Amino acid sequence: MFIDIHAHAYRFPQKFVCEFCSAEQLLERWDELGISKGVVLPIVNPEVYLPQSNEDILEMAEKYPDRIIPFCNVDPRSIKNNAYADFEPILQYYKDRGCKGIGEIMPKMDLSDPKLQNLLYYAQKVGLPVTLDGAPQRDIGFGIYDDPGLPKLEMTLISFPELIVLGHGPWFWAELAKLETPGERGYFYTARGQQVGNMNRSPIIEEGVVPKLLRKYPNLYGDLSDISPYYMLSRNPEFGAAFLTEFQDRMFFGTDIVSPSMPVDIIGMLNTWLADGLLTKEVYDKITHKNAERFLGL
Q1: Residue 288 CB partners (closer than 8 Å, separation 6+)
Q2: How far apart are CA 115 and CA 82, in angstroms?
Q3: Which helix (H) or strand (E) holds 220?
């Protein structure tokens, strides 16, 4: 059994950036993969994608209440475009409507930006977890920026100790291993917009900052969706399985499905590791669905 902590769908699918699923196409893909239900996160930051409304996700959840679990999302520049916008009524409204978290949060801003920190302040106050997505560059593309070593993430975890933060994407998972160069954080864009570079796929020699942050800060969790955690965990199956075992109570299976045909390699990896004895059935069950059941109150 699988529960997806991270997927996407549009009410009216469009192909301007990628071929997004409709709710029905997402459910068909889940059925193909053996996923019983999951979280759908709205995209509201406009740097790359066309924003959608929280109401679109709520409508999908109301139509398929046994399958779709809604998150809400708010751009931190909304309302006042300063660090004093009161997001409490908005977030409380969507929490009361059934939204289980906020995200994915991915504006092109420094994680330390006061406007973004203000949104996280109200997320903690209202009691909603957040899913953060980042990028290795400040100026091009989408995603929150943090420096190598994730010092701004650590500052955030210290600043908001009651806020559950789900780390997601290459900026986070690349630092499962010690970086040899900053270029290993994921792909970069050149000044002319060409995509270059990628995450290191060679065997891991030394652990990076992510395991250390997880040990130190109990409010940090892992969102295993998109290709980046698969890339990193599969570099050394023994290392990857040991990592998942150590943090078995804070890891969540996910897909980050956006298009109807998107592959999800991590399913095969988890199933193989279970069959080979690298993961126990208890750890496998926690990661694939039991943690999500507890976390989402299912």
Answers
A1: 1, 2, 3, 253, 270
A2: 6
A3: strand 220-223
Bridge partners of 252, per DSSP, are 223
Q: Is the peptide bond before 104 cis (omega within 30 degrees of 0)?
A: yes
Sequence-distant (≥ 6) Cβ neighbours of residue 135 within 8 angstroms: 108, 141, 142, 143, 144, 145, 169, 170, 171, 186
Q: In whole angstroms, what is the distance from residue 106 CA to residue 111 CA?
A: 10
pTM: 0.95
Closest CA to 10 of 46, 48, 60: 60
Classified as helix, coil or strand, 105 is: strand
**Strand residues in 45-171 grouped as ranges (E):** 68-70, 102-105, 130-135, 144-145, 165-168
Residues 95 and 258: their CA atoms lie apart, in Å, by 24
Cα 216 from Cα 159, distance rounded (Å): 14
Query: Tens digits of per-residue pLDDT, 146-158?
Result: 999 999 999 999 9
